[in-house]
Design goal:
The complex is a heterodimer of chains A (258) and B (853).
Chain A: H1 2-6, H2 21-42, H3 48-71, H4 76-88, H5 94-104, E1 112-118, H6 126-134, E2 137-141, H7 162-171, H8 183-196, E3 200-206, H9 210-213, H10 216-222, E4 227-232, H11 239-257
Parallel strand pairs in A: 1-2, 1-3, 3-4
Helix pairs in contact in A: 2-7, 3-4, 3-5, 6-11
Chain B: E1 8-9, H1 11-17, H2 23-28, E2 30-31, E3 40-41, H3 46-51, E4 62-63, H4 66-76, H5 78-87, E5 91-96, H6 102-106, E6 112-116, H7 123-127, H8 131-138, H9 150-157, E7 166-172, H10 176-187, E8 192-197, E9 212-214, E10 221-223, H11 224-245, H12 251-276, H13 285-297, H14 302-322, E11 332-337, H15 344-351, E12 354-360, H16 376-385, H17 393-406, E13 411-417, H18 423-437, E14 442-447, H19 456-474, H20 478-484, H21 486-499, E15 504-507, H22 514-519, E16 523-526, H23 535-538, H24 548-559, E17 570-574, H25 578-587, E18 593-596, H26 607-626, H27 632-654, H28 665-669, H29 679-698, E19 709-714, H30 723-730, E20 734-738, H31 758-767, H32 778-790, E21 795-801, H33 805-822, E22 825-831, H34 838-852
Parallel strand pairs in B: 5-6, 5-7, 7-8, 11-12, 11-13, 13-14, 15-16, 15-17, 17-18, 19-20, 19-21, 21-22
Antiparallel strand pairs in B: 1-4, 2-3, 9-10
Helix pairs in contact in B: 4-13, 4-14, 8-9, 11-16, 12-13, 12-14, 17-18, 20-29, 26-31, 27-29, 30-34, 32-33
Classes of the chains: A alpha/beta (258), B alpha/beta (853).
């Protein structure tokens, strides 16, 4: 529709739902085709060194943000803004910028930590983070726009096929609810609960996001900590109700911890 | 066993006829002959199957042939086959989503059956109880998903099939609903093999390095890399089947299975062509739906499937040879897209005089023959790549339009699946493609879950749609289509005239003498002013309590959205009412405006000479503006031209006198075009008159005899402001004539071609217009009386645009005249251009019409 209605240049790439060697290979072939098409249409050449450099810088700053998230020294909103910065800014110099910023930033001292899993947390969803910050809670973001997008592994080898390496780095990123099977999503949350000692799990879903919405029941049953599902639709009308639910959830956690 | 006649009968009627079914035929209908010697007889009536839980069957109508009875019984006995096979030690595989590809591979495994768990979406509808949906909801699959969630419920209850040994789940280029449901099925411990369906990309200018080929069966273009990938995924399925069954699957075994499925596909494709291609289909739509679904998995018994299809083919051939069908004569041909979740929709379609002329139930890839000249995996991969669901909505839409054309469909119904993610995209694309390429009506609706009966809303929409298709058969609309789209013709005409050096004069009112404009060689163009969208911008300058016609006209001038304003060299305005008069002052700075002063006391002796002076001044202004002398010769030529055009319009509007009506008020309102003297308009007016004569001769009426006949008077209507006419006709009455400026009023008198002074003749014609700005305006009541008599009207509706003082006040006199002198029903409607009061107005009009009836 973008191509037909808006006349935008569209390059379709299918992200397979399954994670097998066969699908990895298919995904890689599509990325190769995408690169070739870009070269052919725009008369440019793929610069492997620049791509690798870009990715390693991206990864370095991503690793730092993940460490900060797990050490809970940033408030939920600060962390959210940092994640947003990571997605939109050039990676060159980003790590040192964050480090400089940390030198002057006041330390957040939370009373408890929760994990937030689920779909993307958008600007319209920050009311949840505001509420958590108001209650002095730290958040480990395991949702689609959280650590899931910045924790990946790159092989540290010479003479690699750069396109294949970058494609596979994206392909094998931490589990997404859309993956089939998606047991990895549950494993990842379980591991994070164990390592962080988080008191509760907030599952943030978007209305009509089938992949997360249909997992509500299983997510409630899968873990030994309290779970709440917050369903949002970018509508301000629901904010107050959802904020009250979060407040009640946190109060329950704190009473439990006492 | 072919019967001589064909009927559509109920489940109960079938039950009554079961005693007459020959024993020999019953013995022929058996399944799983390789498990039970001689097979298991299954020929029971739909009524008996309804007693086993599928109560929807009692609301359906069935074809009365034995072949159809066998078909229904075969489909509804599938559950028995699956349990029997499982209890006999066979393996049971549940395929999901690929709809036709996996069984070709899995039936190569001896002693196994494969069924489609996602076909269970019909179960809650057939059973008319939501247990499976409730079970699914408990596990997280609620109403936000489509009915495929019933498969999850069925995996829990195991009422419809035994626990499968393996579920083979296709994901990737499938909708999220399928994917999520399959994940939950795996979550309850059902062994699942996942495989990936690739997206079939359309060729595009951006996919420059991708190679494309076409499938052998369906001729679908696909990227070569996808084919290789599908083959590797299919290899994975075969490996998994070997692992689960412990059987080594050879190419020969696969080939035998493929050949058997080809036998099924060949028969299904032939049946489709024979039935859908027939003017009076020899089999009803429900039976054909069952036939099509046999193609995807052979209904858990490939050998019996072939026998069932052969039986149907014999019946179809016999019926075609002997002109037998259970359907109405000359049924309305409808193409059906998307599987109808409620089977009774097809029964309803046929009850309404329709027939199915082609389908696309998302399984069309299962009707194409599989190539036997390549490896089985390559042939099946081709079939996978023909799947309509893995490509773009545009591709699917194009295919549907081609099929609808092939089978001569008169309309297309798209029955959306509530909760399905892909439907909204596909439905729009299909509707647009069909309307663009075939220009036939499309009805699109979601089918809600409504056990026990069809949703009233769906019934109403189906009824209205079939009525529309029926009317389209009766009535040609070609000339009307021209007038419906005449704006673009007029824009081209005006632009061409400008390029040729002709002047363009914008006008607003019927008092403007078009003959003078034509005589100066310019084009008279009625400027825009009948759209609510331009009112807000006008209200930034004009007071809100002004009539919508003035505000809309002024809004168009402000936002320059009227395609004629820019072309107009001058605007001729007139002093009809205070609002217009003062509005013209606001535009005079930016536009060349000439104002005609109307003589409002028409009975005064000096009135006409004043008006004649005004007409003369306009003549001078036009001559000066365009540098052309308007001679008497030129005037006479223009008079003839306008008289001819008015005469044709008047002839067309006169068809409103016919009883029963041969033309609707809405149709006649389309003749209200904007530019005078366009040759195409004249030709199409003639064509329309011819069409109306034809309707009259052939007795093709647009309303029932005795339908209330309404005369509409008051303020003018126009494109975008016909809501009152729409409402009146939606309520079952007919607007037989508009007395207004947008109807008969400006046509009543011609310019007298015999008068020695043509300018005086022109002035006389316009001087006689009975507008409410005149005082007193007795001409209006005289005209209403005359028209009420000629058009045999039963009631008068006086339309007053809000804040139009002259018509508003005069309405009192009109009411008195209509009720006292004519003895007719009367209603005054005061409204504006918005639609906000439509429902309220409809109730008022309905009440008036009810009282008149």
């Amino acid at each position: 529709m973008f191509d037909e209605l808006l006349g935008l240049e569209m390059h379709p790439i299918q992200l397979p739902a399954t994670r097998t060697d066969s699908t990895a290979s298919y995904y890689t072939s599509q990325i190769r085709r995408f690169v070739s098409d870009i070269e052919s249409i725009h008369g440019v050449r793929f610069n492997a060194d620049l791509a690798l450099d870009w990715q390693s810088q991206k990864q370095a700053s991503g690793t730092l943000i993940a460490e900060l998230a797990r050490s809970a020294i940033l408030s939920p909103l600060e962390l959210h803004e940092l994640l947003h910065l990571w997605t939109v800014s050039s990676p060159f110099g980003l790590k040192s910028f964050i480090e400089d910023m940390l030198c002057v930033a006041p330390r957040y001292k939370p009373t408890a930590t929760v994990i937030m899993a689920g779909g993307p947390v958008a600007y319209e969803d920050t009311f949840m983070l505001e509420e958590l910050e108001r209650m002095n809670i730290a958040v480990i973001p395991l949702h689609c726009t959280g650590l899931n997008m910045l924790e990946s592994e790159m092989p540290n080898e010479d003479n690699i096929d750069v396109i294949e390496t970058l494609a596979l780095e994206a392909f094998w990123r931490p589990a997404c609810a859309r993956q089939r099977p998606n047991a990895g999503v549950f494993d990842r949350i379980r591991n994070e609960i164990e390592s962080s000692g988080a008191s509760g799990l907030i599952v943030k879903t978007q209305t009509f996001c089938d992949h997360w919405n249909t997992e509500k029941v299983r997510l409630h049953e899968a873990f030994d900590i309290p779970v709440i599902v917050i369903d949002t639709a970018y509508s301000e009308g629901e904010h107050q109700r959802q904020a009250v639910r979060i407040e009640a959830f946190i109060e329950t956690l704190c009473i439990g911890s006492l | 066993m072919i019967t001589e006649t064909a009927e559509r009968i109920s489940a109960e009627q079938w039950e009554e006829r079961m005693a007459g079914v020959p024993e020999e035929y019953r013995r022929k209908c058996t399944y799983l002959r390789s498990i039970v010697p001689g097979g298991v007889q299954y020929l029971r009536s739909p009524f008996e199957y309804s007693c086993r839980g599928d109560v929807l069957l009692r609301r359906l109508k069935f074809d009365s042939s034995l072949a159809s009875l066998r078909l229904w019984a075969f489909l509804f006995s599938e559950k028995d086959r699956l349990f029997l096979a499982k209890n006999s030690g066979w393996q049971i595989y549940a395929a999901m989503k690929d709809l036709g590809s996996v069984p070709v591979l899995s039936y190569a495994v001896p002693n196994s059956l494969t069924f489609y768990a996602d076909e269970l979406w019909w179960a809650p509808c057939f059973a008319e109880e939501p247990r499976l949906l409730d079970e699914a909801r408990k596990l997280g699959a609620g109403d936000e998903l489509c009915f495929v969630r019933a498969a999850l419920g069925a995996m829990i209850t195991l009422d419809y099939f035994p626990r499968p040994d393996l579920t083979i789940a296709a994901v990737g280029a499938v909708c999220d609903d399928f994917s999520a449901v399959m994940q939950l099925i795996e979550g309850i411990g059902i062994p699942t093999h996942w495989w990936e369906l690739p997206v079939r990309f359309d060729k595009s200018k951006y996919l420059v390095t991708e190679l494309f080929e076409k499938t052998i069966g369906g001729d679908s273009a696909y990227q070569v890399s996808a084919k290789k990938f599908v083959m590797s995924e299919l290899r994975g399925i075969v490996n998994k089947l070997e692992e689960v069954s412990g059987v080594t699957i050879t190419e020969l075994m696969l080939h035998e299975s493929l050949s058997r499925f080809n036998e099924i596909r060949k028969r299904v494709a032939l049946l489709r062509d024979l039935v859908y291609g027939s003017a009076r289909p020899p089999l009803p739509g429900l039976e054909m739906m069952l036939v099509e679904f046999i193609a995807i998995h052979a209904c858990s018994d490939p050998d019996e499937s072939i026998a069932v299809l052969d039986d149907l083919l014999d019946t179809v051939h016999y019926r075609l040879d002997n002109g037998i069908s259970a359907l109405a004569d000359n049924p309305i041909r409808v193409f059906w897209a998307m599987p109808p979740t409620d089977a009774s929709l097809i029964t309803l379609l046929e009850d309404l005089g329709g027939c199915i002329a082609g389908t696309e139930y998302l399984i069309s890839h299962s009707f194409y023959p599989l190539s036997e000249d390549v490896t089985v995996l390559s042939a099946v991969a081709d079939s996978v790549l023909d799947d309509p669901m893995i490509g773009s909505p545009a591709f699917r839409a194009k295919r549907i339009a081609e099929e609808a054309k092939k089978y001569g469909a008169e309309g297309v119904i798209i029955s959306g699946i509530t909760g399905a993610s892909h439907c909204p995209f596909d439905e729009k694309a299909i509707a647009r493609e069909v309307e663009l390429s075939l220009d036939i009506p499309v009805l699109s609706f979601d089918v809600p879950y409504s056990p026990g009966k069809l949703s009233e809303q769906v019934i109403n929409r189906m009824e209205a749609f079939m009525e529309l298709l029926g009317n389209l058969r009766k009535v040609s609309t070609a000339p009307l289509d021209y007038f419906r789209n005449s704006m673009s013709t007029e824009v081209d005409y005006v632009n061409e005239a400008k390029r040729a050096g002709r002047g363009v004069v914008g006008i607003y009112c019927e008092f403007t003498t078009r003959e003078l404009i034509l005589a100066v060689g310019a084009v008279p163009v009625c400027l825009c002013g009948t759209n609510a969208s331009t009112i807000p911008i006008a209200e930034t300058v004009l007071p809100a309590n002004l009539c919508p016609l003035i505000k809309s006209s002024y809004g168009y001038l402000l936002n320059n959205q009227c395609p004629f304003t820019g072309a107009a060299d001058m605007i001729v305005a007139e002093t009809t009412c205070d609002g217009k008069k003062k509005m013209y002052e606001l535009i005079a700075d930016a536009r060349a405006v000439h104002v005609l002063e109307l003589t409002q006391k028409v009975r005064d002796t000096e009135a006409f000479s004043h008006w004649l002076d005004e007409v003369r001044k306009l003549k001078t202004a036009l001559e000066e503006k365009f540098g052309v002398v308007i001679t008497d010769e030129r005037l006479r030529e223009a008079i003839k031209q306008m008289n001819k055009e008015r005469g044709l319009l008047k002839t067309a509007l006169s068809f409103g006198m016919e009883e029963p009506a041969v033309v609707t008020g809405m149709e006649l309102s389309l003749l209200r075009y904007r530019v005078a003297g366009v040759p195409g308009h004249i030709e199409m007016l003639k064509a329309f008159i011819e069409e109306l004569n034809k309707r009259k001769a052939e007795g093709k009426f647009v309303a029932k005899p005795g339908a209330p006949r309404i005369l509409l008077t008051g303020c003018p209507t126009g494109e975008g402001t016909t809501k009152i006419i729409e409402i009146i006709e939606e309520c079952g009455a007919i607007v037989v004539v508009q007395e207004t400026c947008s109807g008969w009023k400006p046509l009543e008198l011609d310019v007298d071609e015999a008068m020695p002074n043509p300018l005086t003749a022109i002035a006389e014609k316009y001087f006689a217009l009975p507008c409410s700005c005149m005082t007193p305006n007795t001409g209006r009541t005289e005209l209403i009386g005359e028209l009420a008599d000629k058009f045999k009207v039963n009631g008068v509706i006086d339309l007053v645009w809000q804040a139009c003082h002259t018509y508003n006040i005069e309405s009192h006199l009109i009411e008195k005249f209509v009720t006292d002198s004519l003895g007719l029903s009367f209603m005054k409607i005061e409204t504006d251009y918005s639609d906000s009061d439509r429902e309220r107005l409809k109730i008022r009009v309905q009440t008036m019409i009810e009282m008149m009836s």
